Amino acid sequence: MDVKKNIALNKPNTGTSNRFKNFPMVPRVVFGKGCFDQLGEILLPKRKSSDAPIIYLIDQVFENSSLPGRVPVLFNDKIIFISADEEPKTQQVDSLVQFIKDEFEELPSGIVGIGGGTLLDLAKAVSIMLNNNGSAHNYQGWDLVGKPAIYHAGIPTISGTGAEVSRTTVLLGPHKKLGINSDFTTFDQVLLDPDLTKGVPTDQWFYTGMDCFIHCIESLSGSYLNAFSQSYGEKALEMCKEVFLGELNPEESREKLMMASWHGGMSIAYSQVGIAHAMSYGLSYVLGTKHGIGNCLVFQHLGAYYPEGVELFMKMKRRHNIELPKNICSVLSEEEMNTMISVSLGMEPLWENALGPSWRDQISRESLKEIYLKI
Amino acid sequence: MDVKKNIALNKPNTGTSNRFKNFPMVPRVVFGKGCFDQLGEILLPKRKSSDAPIIYLIDQVFENSSLPGRVPVLFNDKIIFISADEEPKTQQVDSLVQFIKDEFEELPSGIVGIGGGTLLDLAKAVSIMLNNNGSAHNYQGWDLVGKPAIYHAGIPTISGTGAEVSRTTVLLGPHKKLGINSDFTTFDQVLLDPDLTKGVPTDQWFYTGMDCFIHCIESLSGSYLNAFSQSYGEKALEMCKEVFLGELNPEESREKLMMASWHGGMSIAYSQVGIAHAMSYGLSYVLGTKHGIGNCLVFQHLGAYYPEGVELFMKMKRRHNIELPKNICSVLSEEEMNTMISVSLGMEPLWENALGPSWRDQISRESLKEIYLKI
Predict the structure, then answer these.
(1) Pfam families this protein is in (chains A, B) (predicted)?
(2) Interatomic CA distance for residues B220 and B241, integer angstroms
(3) Pairing of strands A189-192, B78-82
């Protein structure tokens, strides 16, 4: 698995380098309680013909809720429910694309992803692959996509991943877990309706929110930051604090966390994550730990590196009675532990962002093992 | 002059209304010290042929600086220097469009505006009018533009107006001062290079920065706000405070004010300005006072409405030794004063945003006159 490449292009934009990424932003966004009901109107001008459907990819948890009934299904539009229990896969994207091509004579007018990071990433990938030949795994990397994606819209139903604004879709391929990073990946439209995050279970809400919080702590204390990303990251962090430690009412809390995720996602334009993400990747590789909880598992033990951030995190965790699993690394074989450490240390830019160019002098395989064994 | 219409569509998005604007964002942004030198590379793929030029509209103050030499002029590209001493006019847009059509056989590949709000607004308007028939004044209003603008990029050289992210270009027409508000108005590309704001004179820097500050104070205390705009407005306000009252070095200060302007501009998506803007519009109509300084002239006397904001403003003004002109309204005839008051009171949504639905009970022609006479 080529984890190193996954972050290799998020190189510092300051100091020696005078080149800055020309960042693609989501060109259209609507925000508001209940704005989901504007979806039909938003999609109407995007419909090419009555034979070119809109395909809705929706998190399976909504299958028996009132949400599907509110989806503006017209003509031969199709709703496909997809489980978000596992990470999205290139093979899954290929199957979806094949299914859509077999089922319809015309290419869809658009793909709409409704759900968390997994559904949003699938919607991005499917919309790309409907216009590009071959398997999705051929496009994992940077700027390998030759043709624009078909129109795609993202509608988050849980807040924190920032997938709604990013230019990547991270997929598990046959050989590697790696994003399709391209200017065509970014959504054409995002719809932010805080009411859609109403029924999220507390633990999921916490882990996904912490994805944003930990991202902010890591990027704001990192060496890759510039004023653009700093301003977004600071605002996202401030809103996370309000949401997880403040006295907001539930409606305000949903709204603020949705905006925190948005700003946190924007802050990645010119920033990089750090140690928690590097080590969480190791966990994910060896144990299949999901991204949000993996970050939490690692971050709680990083007080030496992010003292204030970890203190805040522990406060938030206590405040919301979150119990993290324990001793999950104690069962690992020596070989597995070694793999985990190697995967983590392979993510060089994250370590460099966190500890500076001489990061290798400040961290050792032994010190990583020590942290992992606490998890 | 139809000032009322100019803001009529910025109606509250909360409360009774369940409809939210689907806001067009700038789809591509690059930020960084020195990123101006990436302009050539950014424009290259936008060039349709060697006969379809890029037209650069540049603030005349740069005519004898090193900037024009850094502009990536290729083939038959043209630089046009334009004075920003006066507000941009529909007639000026028409002349520019006619000149470009006469001068070149093909439509330009793109228009690049380099300067403050005036130059950015001109670039937006010219790019629209090159693809739409008739005079620019026919398009003043909301969503009257039928065809997409040609590619246009904005490069601010002074921070605070937010014109770099807005979907309007405010023009003085034969009958009214009113924006061309449309989804085609928004720039296709923005380049944010804080170094370009280096030589701005202190008073201009202050007035334009206060455009952002006052906007934030008005929108954050207004009734039209939602969580999306609030998050942007709060960040912009915080950065204004850092810039005008903090201890930043000049480089940080330039970077933060550029980002404050950006976030302040984004915050207009779902917010509205207030009393200072309403009254400043009156000044502008009768006396030709420019927007930035006009806001300052009014705002200093609005302590009764924005106590904390005005206190901060006075601190900033003292800190930077800004002397505002005095007694500029004392010379007005009774008729002129009446016009000024009528123009200001005509901006109903601004008053409603500031004082609520019963704003008419809280403000009178007499109270406005009293404030104007202090200016």
Answers:
(1) ADH_Fe_C (PF25137), Fe-ADH (PF00465)
(2) 15
(3) unpaired
Q: How far apart are CA B33 and CA A305, in angstroms?
A: 29
Please list, in sequence order, all residues whose beta carbon lies within 8 angstroms of the beta carbon of residue A119, skipping any fewer than 6 positions away: A57, A58, A59, A82, A84, A113, A157
pLDDT at B6 over 80: no
Residue A360 within a domain: yes
**Which of A362-366, B95-99, B284-288, B319-323 has the least mean pLDDT?**
B284-288
Confirm if A110 and A153 have CB atoms less than 8 A apart.
yes
Q: Which of A235, A256, A267 to mutate to test the interface with B (most CBs of B within 10 A)?
A: A235
Instruction: Determine, yes or no, domain membership for A17.
Output: no
In chain A, residues with a C-beta closer than 8 Å to the C-beta of B252 are 227
Q: Is residue B217 domain-shared with residue B190, that is, in the same domain?
A: no
Contact B239 A228 (CB under 8 A): no
The H or E element containing residue B373 is helix B365-374
SS3 B316: helix
Question: CB within 8 A of A118, min separation 6: which ones?
Answer: A59, A82, A84, A86, A87, A88
Interchain contact A163–B (C-beta under 8 A): no
Neighbouring CB atoms inside 10 A of A302's CB total 21
Task: Tell me which chain A residues have a C-beta less than 8 angstroms from the C-beta of B241.
Answer: none
User: Which string of b and e fits B4-21 if b means at least 16 CB within 10 Å?
Assistant: bbbbeebebbeeeeeebb
In chain B, the number of structural domains is 2
Closest residue in chain A to residue B188, using alpha carbons only: A27
- Token representation of residue A69: 């009934």
Cβ–Cβ below 8 Å for A38 and B26: no
With 0-12 / 13-18 / 19 or more C-beta atoms within 10 angstroms meaning exposed / middle / buried, residue B297 is buried
For residue A12, which phi and psi values (nearest 5 degrees)? Answer: -60, 145
Q: Are B215 and B138 within one domain?
A: no
How deeply is B216 buried, as exposed, middle or buried, from its count of CB atoms within 10 A (0-12, 13-18, 19+)? buried
Last residue of one domain, picked from the residues B142, B169, B197:
B197
The domain in which residue B328 lies consists of 4-11+201-374
* Inside any domain, residue A253: yes
Q: Averaged over A50-59, what is the pLDDT? A: 97
Quick one: B181 and B227 in the same domain?
no
Q: Does the residue A16 lie in any domain?
A: no
Look at residue A202 and tell me whether its pLDDT is greater than 70.
yes
Q: Which of residues 187-226 of B touch A (CB under 8 A)?
A: 189, 192, 194, 226
Q: If you ran DSSP here, which 8-state letter would residue A321 be given?
A: T
Q: How far is CA B343 from CA B279, B326, B349, in A?
A: 8, 21, 13
Q: What is the rounded CA–CA span in Å between residue B197 and residue A186?
A: 31
What's the one-letter identity of residue B217?
Answer: I
- Residues in Cβ contact with B340 at an 8 Å cutoff, skipping those fewer than 6 apart: B282, B283, B285, B286, B329, B332, B372
For residue A9, the model assigns a pLDDT of 38
Convert the pLDDT of each residue in B337-367 to its tens digit.
999 999 899 889 899 999 999 999 999 999 9
- The SS3 assignment for A362 reads coil
pLDDT in tens, A326-365: 999 988 999 999 999 998 998 898 999 999 999 999 999 9
